[in-house]
Amino acid sequence: MQWYTEHVVDTGRAPALFALVGFVVTFVLVRSITRRIRARGETERPASRATGQGARRRALLGDVSIGGVHVHHQVWGILLVLLTGMLEFRYSPGHPWSEVLALLFGAGAALALDEFALWLYVDDVYWTEEGQRSIDAILVGGAIGSALLLSASPVGVTSDGSQGGWVAYTVTVVVHLLLALVCILKGKLATGLVGIVVPVVALVGTVRLAKPSSPWARRRYEHRPHRLARAQARFGARYQARWERVRTLVGGRADDDPPRPAA
Q1: What is the rounded distance in angstroms from the CA atom of residue 225 to the CA atom of residue 97?
Q2: Whose C-alpha in 37, 78, 94, 105 is 20 to 30 A from the C-alpha of 258?
Q3: Residue 189 sits in the same domain as residue 127
Q4: Which residues, at least 6 apart from 44, have a Cβ–Cβ distance to it below 8 Å?
Q5: Percent of the chain, pLDDT > 70?
Q6: Nearest CA-CA partner of 14 in 27, 31, 1, 28
Q7: Which residues on adjacent β-strands are paired with residue 70?
Q8: Is position 110 within any domain?
Q9: Higher pLDDT pick, 153 / 229
């Protein structure tokens, strides 16, 4: 308990820790529930087609509908994020209520980002290939939360308060943010966002090759075919296959051929 007080509470990391815990636990629970609902649907679908009748039994776990409208869990996540944000901004509570709000904020963020692809495509693509963008958002959110927990300053540096210190601080922050921006222009959104918190990540992402489809590659590699070829080789089929395995492990497989309703 003393270690927790000294290294977490006294350093101001407690809200970040609780937000990350709420984020991870909520995502694991939600994905477990949705995968269970999906597996049950795949089991019941052949039986209903054989009998010509839909499933009559109402399961304990299932989709939430209000007035016949399916309410996606991103709705509850967005409302929870808004509520906890307003309470934090209005009351700025201290320990332990700040940790409670952080826990609920993390849970809301997980609920919302788990259906990030629905925001992006404005369609129910949860179990399709496009829906895997939600897993990317979850991984980025978890990485940023972990980086914020480990780093005392969002930009990785602090000032000593003197005039010279402020000049060095400003220059360091500007260079740091420029490196993160270069990562994003190179098509490495996750690296750029995490790099805002961890400077070395932004530096590594800056010096390495850009993705072939990125604005940086289109402009800078146009007359440098050898660089473009290296980028295409690095971010080609093997790279995509590795990421697909990670996405499947974290969030479940996408439907290659989503089932169609019976005629």
Answers
A1: 57
A2: 78
A3: no
A4: 55
A5: 84
A6: 1
A7: 65
A8: yes
A9: 229
Q: What sign does the CA torsion over 203, 206, 207, 211 have?
A: positive
Tens digit of each residue's pLDDT (9 = 90 or more) over 62-74: 778 787 788 899 9
Note down the domain range covering 160: 155-208
User: What is the count of structural domains for the chain?
Assistant: 3
Q: What are the structure tokens assigned to 178, written together?
A: 């420029």
Q: Which residue has better confidence, 157 or 194?
A: 194
- Whether omega before 96 lies within 30 degrees of 0, making that bond cis, reads yes
- What does the angle CA 26 – CA 90 – CA 77 come to, to the nearest 5 degrees? 20
d(CA 211, CA 225): 14
Q: Is the pLDDT of residue 30 over 70?
A: yes
66: phi then psi, degrees, rounded to nearest 5: -125, 115
Whether 64 is covered by a domain: the verdict is no
- pLDDT tens for each residue of 212-256: 999 999 999 988 999 999 999 999 999 999 988 998 999 888 875
Q: Is this structure's pTM higher than 0.90?
A: no
Query: What's the pLDDT score for residue 185?
Result: 95
User: At 192, which amino acid appears?
Assistant: G
